[in-house]
Specification:
- It is built from eight helices and no strands.
- The chain is mainly alpha-helical and 169 residues long.
- The chain has one domain.
- Helix 2 crosses helix 7, helix 3 packs antiparallel against helix 4 and helix 4 packs antiparallel against helix 6.
Length: 169
């Protein structure tokens, strides 16, 4: 059964990959894929905390804590499972610094941020992030750095972690 699921995952991954001629789609996918980077979010949240009023400072701290908790849990799972990333050329920085693909940290982080934003408010931010999170995940598969099961598991993990971290805020 596991072998059949792995074969399906691999087949779906290959079918989802962007072709060489898909330049515009690839450019959008690259932007979406990088928009889930932790350094990008942590820097943005630091600026929000620095320049924001008390309302935004509280959200910046909560979301920053969520990012850190998510990173710890994702890395613990990745180093336990040790699933190799799909073969490919794009994303060499990810391939060299983090050779493990399961679960997707970007998918977990984006969904955790969406869930936390829905819980903390404002509603428009939560809805925006809820629409953005699956696009980040899809882009990671289309660019060949994750299998579909990596991002599905990452999104589920991120949703659970978002709910858990919200309990502390």
């Amino acid at each position: 059964m596991w072998q059949k699921l792995a074969e399906l995952d691999n087949r779906l991954s290959r079918l989802s990959r962007l072709g060489v001629n898909d330049r515009l789609t690839k450019a959008v996918a690259v932007i979406l894929a990088h928009s889930g980077d932790s350094w990008f979010w942590l820097l943005g949240l630091l600026l929000l905390w620095w320049f924001g009023n008390e309302y935004w400072k509280q959200r910046a701290v909560a979301l920053g804590a969520g990012i850190l908790v998510t990173a710890l849990v994702v890395m613990a799972i990745k180093f336990t499972v040790r699933r190799s990333r799909p073969e490919g050329q794009w994303g060499q920085i990810y391939r060299s610094t983090d050779p493990h693909s399961f679960p997707s940290g970007h998918a977990a982080r984006s969904m955790m941020l969406a869930v936390m934003a829905l819980g903390l408010g404002p509603l428009w931010l939560g809805l925006l992030l809820l629409a953005w999170a699956p696009l980040v995940s899809l882009a990671r598969v289309m660019l060949g750095v994750h299998y579909p099961s990596d991002v599905i598991a990452g999104m589920a993990l991120g949703a659970v972690l978002g709910v858990i971290v919200l309990q502390f805020f």
